[in-house]
Specification:
- This protein has 259 residues and is α/β, with parallel strands linked by helices.
- Helices cover 39% and strands 13% of the residues.
- α1 packs across α6, α3 packs parallel to α4 and α4 packs parallel to α5.
- The longest helix is centred in the middle third of the chain and has 31 residues.
- It is globular.
């Protein structure tokens, strides 16, 4: 984790679960980022209470109203972040916000598929577009020629549930809309890595493990991985990734996940 040195980052879905865990760990680093932007849908709501408490103690934590399924909200968030950063760029964009509908295949609907895909796949696409100028600025302002998470990067929080080769946990949770959205997110991550490489921006799809969050536990089973362990593992992995890893799909322990 010591290898990950970023001046600024944004985490979406930062009011609970993995998103909140990431914010907490970045704030606890020996050399914390100058800016930690925490995006969430309702910053003043009850579900963001823990995030509000953190912000009252850390002047470098800025809560940003952000609904990743709403293009206008994304553009507004990018403008706000840009204002805070002044002339500098954003080093790290972590697209963590996501939803899952616990549904059997025969009960999937157009509405559920569309909502899940919009949040889990289209959201990260639009976030990448909106924050591209700030990411490019960070890449231009960072020394060295190689790609890395410390320079400028998009991290898309994916899931092994989106692996076509290894459809983990089908017997426990079919969640077809979620699986399809994450498989599409994996392709988006590959496309972003190809399109943004010339700008010095690293892109990766990251599986956080089956984690003990509200979403992870929603099928009635207790996941094996704690938020703390998942976040520590992911930050260690992000610090170790280099240019050769852009466009790949890896997990919180650094293992390559099959597409």
């Amino acid at each position: 984790m010591a290898g990950l040195r970023v001046r600024s980052l944004l985490v979406t879905g930062a009011n609970r679960g993995i998103g909140l865990g990431l914010v907490q760990h970045f704030l606890k680093m020996p050399s914390p980022p100058q800016w930690v932007f925490a995006g969430c849908r309702d910053p003043k709501g009850q579900r963001a209470q823990e995030l509000q408490n953190l912000a009252s103690k850390h002047s470098n934590l800025v809560i940003i109203p952000l609904e990743v399924a709403n293009p206008a909200s994304i553009k507004e968030a990018a403008a706000r972040v840009g204002e805070h950063l002044g002339g500098s760029g954003l080093n790290l964009l972590i697209n963590n916000a996501g939803i899952a509908k616990i549904t059997m295949l025969e009960n999937e609907t157009l509405e559920d598929m569309t909502e899940t895909y919009t949040t889990n796949t289209v959201g990260p696409l639009l976030m990448g577009q909106a924050f591209l100028p700030l990411l490019k600025k960070a890449a231009q302002g960072s020394p060295g020629s190689g790609l890395s998470c410390s320079k400028a990067a998009i991290i898309n929080m994916s899931s092994i549930g989106g692996s076509i080769t290894y459809p983990f946990g089908w017997e426990l949770m079919q969640v077809t809309s979620y699986r399809c959205s994450k498989a599409a997110l994996n392709m988006l991550s590959k496309c972003q890595s190809l399109a943004y490489r010339e700008h010095g921006i690293f892109c990766v799809a990251l599986h956080p493990g089956w984690v003990q969050t509200d979403m992870g536990s929603s099928a009635g089973h207790t996941p094996p991985v704690t938020v703390d362990d998942s976040v520590k593992g992911m930050l260690k992995v992000l610090s170790s990734l280099s240019e050769k890893d852009t466009g790949t799909f890896v997990d919180w322990e650094g293992k390559v996940v099959p597409w």
